[in-house]
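thread: overnight batch results

M.L. [08:02]
morning all. the overnight job finished for the chain we discussed friday. pasting input first so we're all looking at the same thing
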Amino acid sequence: MMYQKVLVPLDGSALAECALPQVKKMAKEGFVKDVILLTVIDIHPSAFMEGSDVTVIYQAQLDNSRDYFKNLQAQFQTEGVEVKTEILQGATAQTIADYARQNEIDLIVIATHGHTGMKRLMFGSVALRVMHESPVPVLLIRPDFCRAAGKK
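M.L. [08:03]
and the structure it wrote out:
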């Protein structure tokens, strides 16, 4: 099966990047045509209440995201895989699901913390919320898969 558009949500963490080797492999083997890397800037409501300069916070996160994606694009290009990047603002899981719906995404590939039971209930999981909100299939990459592949 070939996927025309695959969305990979990233938050800048090594855990989120555990999805990247799988996506690169899928692209190199011809299972994926377009890879879109997405990050969502989600400014916590407390920033508004604390009187923080939300514009400054947003701009700093935007600049960091641009630099982060520039580096990732270079890594993908080195391996012969072209990627598109998107930086959006909003509630993370909902924004990811909305983007997938509005942009005819065929598959979302996202890493999960692998929490179970109470830990999942206490901390929540963006991956789990994306899975429930998504209009398309979601491939969850567990952290133990990443460790097995030699990543931390």
